[in-house]
Amino acid sequence: MDTLRTRLVALVAEHLGQPVEQVQSARSLADLGVDSLELIDLIATVETAFDITIPDDRLERIDSIDQLVAAVDELALARA
C-alpha cells in the first residue's frame, strides 16, 4: 500500500497544485482546501488514473488522504 499511497499522494498534489509534503501531512482533505465540488473533480481524476469507480455512498465517507488511499486500495484489489 505504500506504493499506492505514494502514487496517490503525488496525483492529489499535482491535481491541487500543492507540494507533496503538504498533501502527505494533511489530516483531512478540507485542510488542503478541498470542498465538495473540488472533491468530485479530484475523485474523477483518481478514478481515471486507477481505472476504478468509487461508489457515491463510499465517496460520502472520504474526507482524508488515508480514507482515499483505503478506498482506492480496496477497489483496485476487487478489480484485480
Considering the chains and any ligands shown, give keywords for the structure.
80 residues; mainly alpha; Non-ribosomal Peptide Synthetase Peptidyl Carrier Protein, Chain A; 5 helices; globular
Topology at a glance:
Blueprint (H helix, E strand, L loop, with lengths): L1 H15 L3 H6 L10 H15 L5 H4 L5 H15 L1
Helix pairs in contact: 1-3, 1-5
pLDDT averaged residue by residue? 92
Strand content: under 5%
**Helix-residue proportion:** 55-70%
Task: Look at the structure and name the CATH superfamily.
Answer: ACP-like
Word description of this protein:
It is globular, with a radius of gyration of 11 Å. Helices cover 69% and strands 0% of the residues. It has 5 helices and no strands. It has helices spanning 2-16, 20-25, 36-50, 56-59, 65-79. It has 80 residues and is an all-alpha fold. The longest helix has 15 residues, at 2-16.
A few lines on this structure:
This protein is mainly α. It has helices spanning 2-16, 20-25, 36-50, 56-59, 65-79. Helix 1 (2-16) crosses helix 5.
